[in-house]
Amino acid sequence: MNQDKYYFKHHFTVREANLLIPQLRNSLELIRKLQEQVLKEYPIVKEIAEGKVSDVGFSDSSEYLHRTNFISREIQKISKSGILIKDLKKGLVDFPHLSEEKEVLLCWELGEEEILFWHEIEAGYAGRQALYLDKD
Question: What domain range is 39 assigned to?
Fold first, then answer.
């Protein structure tokens, strides 16, 4: 396989991707939980993100930074493994995959037990198609 002709460095088989689902599920659920806690405990963060206020400090910034750094590290771990995070709120990720020498994306979302869909790189979520067992 000539790796130069592909956009992604690593390609997952359906089996490899499915084996990662339990840990990925745990990580995404933890990230979502921590993000919700941060937004609840530090409502100023949401206001800053929405552009309602700017350049504001708050008293417990060290704890806030600790939590957000942890969230960032968890996201980086997932990304470094070659998994593409598409939507943290939905828990939507893609796994680069080769199907008949063509790059496509295996698509998984929190709540699904295993990889059930794939899509063309340009098609995105709206272009999801059912995965057939021979698509490994």
Answer: 11-130
**Is 5 inside a domain boundary?**
no
Distances in Å between the alpha carbon of 15 and those of 19, 92, 114?
6, 18, 10
The pTM for the full model equals 0.82
Residue 71: inside a domain: yes
- 27 lies in some domain: yes
DSSP string, 62-129: HHHHHHHHHHHHHHHHHHHTT-EEEETTTTEEEEEEEETTEEEEEEEETT-SS--EEEETTT-GGG-E
Residue 90 has which token pair?
């939905």
β-sheet with 92-99: strand ranges across: 84-87, 92-99, 102-109, 117-120, 129-130
Distances (CA, A) of 100 to 38, 93, 97, 133: 44, 22, 10, 14
Is 83 among the domain residues? yes
CB 32 within 8 A of CB 92: no
Domains in the chain: how many in total? 1
Tens of pLDDT, residue by residue over 111-133, are 999 999 999 999 988 899 999 75
Token digits for 86?
Answer: 């598409």
